[in-house]
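tool=predict chain=A
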Amino acid sequence: MRPMNPPPAGMRGPNRIGGGPRGYLTEDEKKNKPKITKALLLRILGYLKPYKWQFFAVFAAIFVSAVLGLFPSIITGKIVDAIVDDSREIKILVQLVVLAFVVLAAAQVISVLEQYINSWISQKIIYDMRNQMYDHLQHMPHAFFTGEKQGDIITRMNSDINGVSSIISVMLTSLVSNVLTVATSVFYLFYTDWRLAIVGLVVLPLLILPTKAVGKKRWELVSEAQGKQDELNQHVDETLSVSGSMLVKLFTKEKVEYEKFRAINNEATKITIKEQRAGSWFHVFLGMFIQIAPLLIYFVGGFLIISRFDAGLTVGDISVVVSLVNRLYQPVRQLLDLQVNFVRSLALFTRLFEYYDRKIEIDNPENPVKPPLDDCSVEFCDVHFSYEKEHEILKGISFFVPDGKMYAIVGTSGAGKSTIIGMIPRLYDVTSGCVKVAGTDVRDYDLSYLRTHIGIVTQDTYLFNGTILENLLYAKPDATREEIENACRVANIYDFINGLPDKFDTVVGNRGLKLSGGEKQRVSIARVVLKDPKILILDEATSSLDSISESLIQSALSAVMKGRTSIVIAHRLSTVIAADKIMVIENGVITETGSHEELIETSRKYRELYETQFKKVIEYEKQHSEKHLSK
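tool=predict ok
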């Protein structure tokens, strides 16, 4: 059961004036206020519908709680009357105290029941919405994740959905509870004495409205102080991090950065002092007024009794009125904030619905096919693609990779190489033209079947924060120990793993940070080997590695590519030179196709890439090899 006589907000500490930030809408919230429509409200109610009987139980408990909430005030009045009564029977006092104890015990039991059901409903709705959101995001195209901020996705998955739970469990039930509390209290106020009821209700706005006004001003200062604190934290983070502190030292900017910090700190301190002082005199006034309000009721009631205007009015009745007026403060204040809370709740729902309504652009067709992949060729037929309509990335790409052959794609950064290979597993769909695997348009495939037969090794290897074994089994959960060890041998990583204290149970850390770049890369290659794909795609898989790591990985990749249709993007000549064909791409167009020797003779662009990217690597590797042999 909710508190019978909640203390007014002004008496509950400075941080609670006006209900904090929930007391009013900011300018941004007013500007971006969601449009309330019948469709939106029905959609929200759709999440509540499966739990309608539980809600009914909560509302029934709230009703009983609101009625029981009257009894402490009523019993207090009876006790006062029993004390001032001439008969002064102890028996009556004992009965009233016992009754008060029974009512309070019943109220607490009902309160626990209500909170339990309410919590269960809100957590179940969170469960439903999180599952729905995660499933929906899993089916979003790759372009969604490259375009959206990761923080925004996580905020919607966590904060926004948790906020919805708070709305459902707090705002809805609070609305019903406050309405019932006000209704029952006002009814009994007038039932007790209509004149004292009017006095109490007139005083009520004088307590609430000034509190809200001061609360708004206080919160504006709190927000300003928080902004300065964020600025201070940003400065500390930038200048006292490993890289930031080194930069400050190298450019001898210690004094400059200190002065910046001191200035921001000074502003933050001034605003905080101002914020803490705000409303101090109001608190003095409010504290006095809170005491004056009951005095007014006692004065009017005392006047009515002394002047004998109403012989039926008792001191106990006056106590009941004072108690019930205090009981009205909190629910009335919350009802005044209802519009603010309602707008904020709709804003949360619209943010979530914005994600739910994102179209799943890459999905299975109505009748997906699973053709045999014995002859697994790859073909691009006049493929055009653009992330944005006005900026075309690929402009009529056409080529054919026969089954079992290895083709390489070279070109400058931003030419469209990664976009091309992303279209084979349908990370992106063509704007026009088509991509075929084994003679069938990839858009006609069962998506899971298609991707199961494609293996990709990228430069930026991603490992989950688990053991090496768990990361390998991600490719094939039912793999035998023998299959796992053979895959690691092919990837030239078995001896390294076997030399670790925990071997395959070694935890690799977040994103595999406990392993070197070459070790992570070989684990990812072993994972692809375990997958045993028909088509292998290598996206600059060795570009950032040292020569020793690259040599091990090149050996592993050669073994993996054997007998598979392979498409390679590479900066290292050793990978490119082994290709059956090399395609030179420039500004989204394939300008030349041929072997290494042919392109050196005929292609200006390839020769330029050779001079800038490949030749230095050859010379470095040659010198490194000669030094190694001389030792």
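The chain has a mean pLDDT of 77. The chain is about 60% helix and 10% strand.
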